[in-house]
Write a structure and sequence with these properties.
CATH superfamily: Winged helix-like DNA-binding domain superfamily/Winged helix DNA-binding domain
Structural class: mainly alpha
Number of helices: 5
CATH topology: Arc Repressor Mutant, subunit A
Number of strands: 3
Oligomer: single chain
Distance between the termini: 67 Å
Low-confidence stretches: none
Number of domains: 1
Helix content: 55-70%
CATH class: Mainly Alpha
Shape: elongated
Amino acid sequence: MADRWEMLGALSDPTRQTLVHLLRRRPATVGELASLLPVSRPAVSQHLQVLKFAGLVEEQRRGTRHYFRLNAKSLAELRAHIDSMWRDALSAFSDFTRKETRDHGKRKGDTRTHSAKRPR
């Protein structure tokens, strides 16, 4: 598996996000992808190499053409990683709210108020 942080970093660029979106439909060549974007073929090629290095896309050669497609296995692993981060965040929030609720219940018996005047 490619490094999860490299995958997330590769997806931080809007052009690479667009390339991933386009490759969801079907494999495509650099030329096909460049014709759909406001960037040059060399720029598309560089972005694809970043995605390839991160493990998000794969390259397949058919004759003289190079087709790029999404790497489903890496994307599934990245999704599992993001899901685990989300579960951790929800669990931490749940623990925090339980503690706050419990602590708030303990303070109910406290008769002091915040609006009481301080002695001079």
